[in-house]
């Protein structure tokens, strides 16, 4: 993201909020109040996350949020009529990235496509303060198959109820929140396998982005017997997902 100049008129003595709006998977709400204005990711469904839904009941499953920056200015200095003043503003990140690595001991050759889910992430973030909401969500994402296993770069708002140190607040973490990582693979014979992990220790040590690593994954040869030539690009994999579009929302 590159910086630049934004011209505004008639703001002397008032406060204002700046944020980038070049987003596709973010819905803004409560924009009439700067204190309550927040961003959430769009909903996305996946029928195969029963385990994740049990560990994280009554929460939304969502797309990863888009890159988002914001800055809040408490008060604009008085400026005489017809005068102008240059006022530097630093845009702070509100979305962070986890590099998720699923490392295989054996059987990666049987994997045709893969996808994952990360449960326990904040559902939304307040634009004014950078603090995340207390509600959690399950983020659904697709994976790339690498020579060591599967990998994904997953954007999130971070953990729930986490004040942002950029805004002069003390950092805190929620040790009571479950944090769960899922991997779902489709084998070349059409069979689907799932693996689930408790990643609370890794998430709490990196509440806003970092590297999440799970290892020792094994797929036995017997799991991929009787190759049927199944087309692994069909059904609800890849781009075929239900997305809640922000129609009529601001």
Can you characterise this structure?
The protein has helices spanning 50-55, 200-205; strands at 16-19, 26-29, 38-41, 44-45, 60-62, 69-73, 92-93, 96-106, 111-122, 124-126, 136-145, 149-156, 180-187, 192-198, 210-218, 242-243. It has 250 residues and is mostly beta strands. Strands 5, 8, 9, 11, 12, 13, 14 and 15 form an eight-stranded mixed β-sheet that branches. Strand 11 (136-145) and strand 12 (149-156) form a beta hairpin.
Overall geometric form: elongated
| Main sheet summary | 8 strands, mixed
The helix content, as a percent range, equals under 10%
Gyration radius from CA atoms, angstroms: 21 Å
Protein topology:
Elements: E1 16-19, E2 26-29, E3 38-41, E4 44-45, H1 50-55, E5 60-62, E6 69-73, E7 92-93, E8 96-106, E9 111-122, E10 124-126, E11 136-145, E12 149-156, E13 180-187, E14 192-198, H2 200-205, E15 210-218, E16 242-243
Parallel strand pairs: 5-11, 8-15
Antiparallel strand pairs: 1-6, 2-3, 3-10, 4-16, 6-7, 8-12, 9-11, 9-13, 11-12, 13-14
Short description:
With 250 residues, this protein is mainly β. The chain has 2 helices and 16 strands.
Keyword list:
250 residues, 3-stranded antiparallel sheet, 16 strands
């Amino acid at each position: 993201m590159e910086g630049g100049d934004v011209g505004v008129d008639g703001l002397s003595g008032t406060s204002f909020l700046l944020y980038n709006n070049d987003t596709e998977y973010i819905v803004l709400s409560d924009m009439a109040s700067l204190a309550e204005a927040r961003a959430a990711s769009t909903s996305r469904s996946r029928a195969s996350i029963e385990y994740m839904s049990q560990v994280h009941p009554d929460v939304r499953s969502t797309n990863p949020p888009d890159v988002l920056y914001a800055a809040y200015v408490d008060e604009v200095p008085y400026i005489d009529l017809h005068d102008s003043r240059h006022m530097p503003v630093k845009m702070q990140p509100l979305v962070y990235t986890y590099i998720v690595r699923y490392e295989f001991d054996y059987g990666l050759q049987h994997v045709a496509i893969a996808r994952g889910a990360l449960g326990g992430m904040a559902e939304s973030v307040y634009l004014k303060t950078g603090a995340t909401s207390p509600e959690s969500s399950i983020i659904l994402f697709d994976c790339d198959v690498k020579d060591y296993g599967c990998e994904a770069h997953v954007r999130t708002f971070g953990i729930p109820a986490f004040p942002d140190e950029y805004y002069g607040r003390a950092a805190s973490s929620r040790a009571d929140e479950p944090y769960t990582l899922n991997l779902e693979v489709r084998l070349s014979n059409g069979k689907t396998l799932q693996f689930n992990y408790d990643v609370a220790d890794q998430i709490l040590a990196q509440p806003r982005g970092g590297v999440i690593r799970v290892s020792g994954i094994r797929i036995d040869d017997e799991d991929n017997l009787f190759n049927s030539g199944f087309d692994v690009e069909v059904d609800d994999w890849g781009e075929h997902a239900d997305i809640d579009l922000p129609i009529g929302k601001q």
